[in-house]
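Hey, resending since the last one bounced:
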Amino acid sequence: MKCRKETMLLYAVTDRAWTGKQSLMEQTKAALKGGVTCVQLREKELDEEEFLKEAIEMKKLCGSYGIPFFINDSVEIAVKCGADGIHVGQEDMDAGNVRAIVGDEMMIGVSAQTVEQAVAAQEAGADYLGVGAVFNTATKLDACEVSYETLKEICETVSIPVVAIGGISKKNMQELSGSGADGAALVSAIFSAEDIEQECRELRRLAEQTFSI
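The structure tokens again:
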């Protein structure tokens, strides 16, 4: 499966920091109903058994909406749950090594902050890039900020889809217009919302106005 640009339009990255009134599964369902175009399950604290159980359940949920499901970092969990894709960072496994494990069908996303990293990821077999942080973000405190100019240069240099990530919200999403990015990956802008479904409807409309689809 190769990554379509449309898949990147409104990319939801989970974070259980905002669970409470709703479970992570309920929040994700609301996001799917609101119009997100793919979901990445990001878990840093769960043990492998619980992570896999959650991944299998979320894969089924996303499948019922016809939306691609990605796992963050854990290649093993991605393979075991039959995820549509895996996303790895610069400090994780090289895309070429990931491909050797997951096979040709699974989509591979790679984080990039520079043109050099972006080109290297594409050459190693990445199907899309996550570029950021494009704005200040409290979700990932060690993220380096990527300028609009660098984002634009990356988009002009590579031929695979690019999703912008990091601190993106309704207030600043349209500042990315003209960058060449294919969409926005959002964490807190989605999962901290009081009404996730409605928030995603508004974010989807903004994304369609901001990015070329």
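The chain has a mean pLDDT of 95.

Sorry for the duplicate.
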